[in-house]
Amino acid sequence: MTLYEYVSCLNPPDTLLISNNGNNATEELVSLADVFRRNHKQLEDQSLALSCRDNIKLIQYLVALDGYCSRLILLPSSLNEEEKQQLIKKSECSFIIEDDQIDQLIMAAPMHQQTVWTLATSGTTGTPILIDHSLESLSRTVKQPSQKSQDFIWGLLYDPCRFAGLQVILQSLIGGNMLVFSSDNNFNSQVETLLQHQVNALSASPSLWRKMLIDGRIRQMSLRQITLGGEIADDSILNKLKSSFPDSRIIHIYASTEAGVGFAVTDAKAGFPANWLNKPKKDIHMKIGSNGNLLIKQSQQVGGKEVLQRIDEQGFLDTQDKVTQERDRILFLGRESGCINVGGNKVHPEEVENVIRELNEVADVRVYSKKNPIIGELVSADIMLSEEQEDKKTVKKTITEHCKTKLELYKIPALISFTSDLQISPAGKLTRTSS
Fold first, then answer.
1. In angstroms, rounded to a whole number, what is the distance separating the alpha carbons of residues 187 and 176?
2. I need a surface site. Which of 27, 133, 255, 363 has the fewest CB within 10 A?
3. Do residues 97 and 142 lie in contact, with contact meaning Cβ atoms separated by under 8 Å?
């Protein structure tokens, strides 16, 4: 089925999409899709890029275009102009839709096939690359409409053109759940919109969850479903969410633009059970490669030249996520490309952050690299304190001494500074720009 067909079959509440910039009912989405297709016959079976700053307008386009165009390239509004132009050129699309403007780029013969959804990676460790999906692969874990699921009111915090954002949107459009979001990316506006419309199901990265817990207003919500993804979910954030929302179901999802939706962990513990390596989880087979990376094989593989190069002869995709086994759990260490090189020693920023967050004085922390002419890079840390403290020298000493009990010497931050806020990327992840 196409997204248009899924929405046409829904019988949800009168209003499906809610934002501070307008609402849409199911019938409106279908009607707008019909009008759009009638007025833009030139787009049928064509490859086109979509860049839209208005989230409601974007979702309207998704309903109208899936099953109508041959390929849909989603360009996040957070891309700079150079990155956007590179991806447009690389995709060889025939048309581009930017907000309400449609421009023809090249002439192409019609391609009668299921719509290919092409997403850009977050580009946190390099230039974004394009990954091909299908609606089937994107919606593999979407819950179908039921009386129980339709009681959920989902909030959207992710960029809607990113993989994680699409998961939330598709849960609304296919599962018949009301979806609430702000018309802009301002954090205060987002939180106020979620509170105003009594959202009870929310998906966010661990970094966004920490930011919301520090802000405090999120505790006014009666959350029934909490989902984490996009970053490593450590015991610290999982325990804080359990204590803040004791009646909520907490799920940590392993997924990425490159790998698609992998698996979900529901026991509110960091990592996943080690026996999953020998006992496939539904249609997911996993193993640890000789390089220490998690390898995944599933029935619905994603596409794209860069991804195909990382699939071995047995069909396993190298996720490029480093893992380690501790007793009966497989724990994530971080991205292979995200390591800090300290005199030839590899340091995963996430490992250092997890140790520092164990301290009550620390609300959150960002670990990143600073260039050094002698050893290459230094481990640096920006600290958000739980409460303002005048004697920061003592806090620095406490952090360093705690790290000495848990980490090798080369992993201990050489530079520690304090900040009132930590920058989070449009993909919902901590930014780790080296300097």
1. 26
2. 27
3. no
Check whether residue 306 and residue 364 sit in a common domain.
no
CA angle 194, 419, 382 (to 5 degrees): 105
Q: Report if residue 373 sits inside a domain.
A: yes
Same domain, 222 and 325: yes
User: Cβ neighbours of residue 147 under 8 Å, at least 6 residues apart?
Assistant: none
- Cα(332)–Cα(323) distance, rounded to whole angstroms? 4
As given in the structure block, the two tokens for residue 158 are 């992710």
Alpha carbons 427 and 186: distance in angstroms, whole number = 14
Query: How far is the CA of 256 from the CAs of 1, 126, 166, 260, 359, in angstroms?
Result: 23, 15, 12, 5, 30
Sign, Cα dihedral of 89, 90, 95, 101: negative
pLDDT in tens, 290-326: 999 999 987 666 666 667 777 888 888 898 899 999 9
Same domain, 278 and 324: yes
CA-based Rg of the chain, rounded to a whole angstrom? 22
For residues 217 and 323, membership in a common domain is answered with yes
Domain of 320? 200-335
* Token pair 């360093």 in the structure block, residue: 400
User: Given CA atoms 158, 164, 168, 174 in this order, what sign does their dihedral have?
Assistant: positive
pLDDT per residue as tens digits for the range 220-262: 999 999 999 989 999 999 999 999 999 999 999 998 787 777 7
Task: Kindly report the number of other CB atoms within 10 A of residue 48's CB atom.
Answer: 25
Q: What global pTM score does this model have? A: 0.89
H helix or E strand, kind and range, residue 173? helix 163-175
Same structural domain, 372 and 291: no
300 and 235, same structural domain? yes
Where are any strands of DSSP class E within 31-177?
47-51, 71-74, 95-98, 101-104, 116-120, 130-133, 153-155
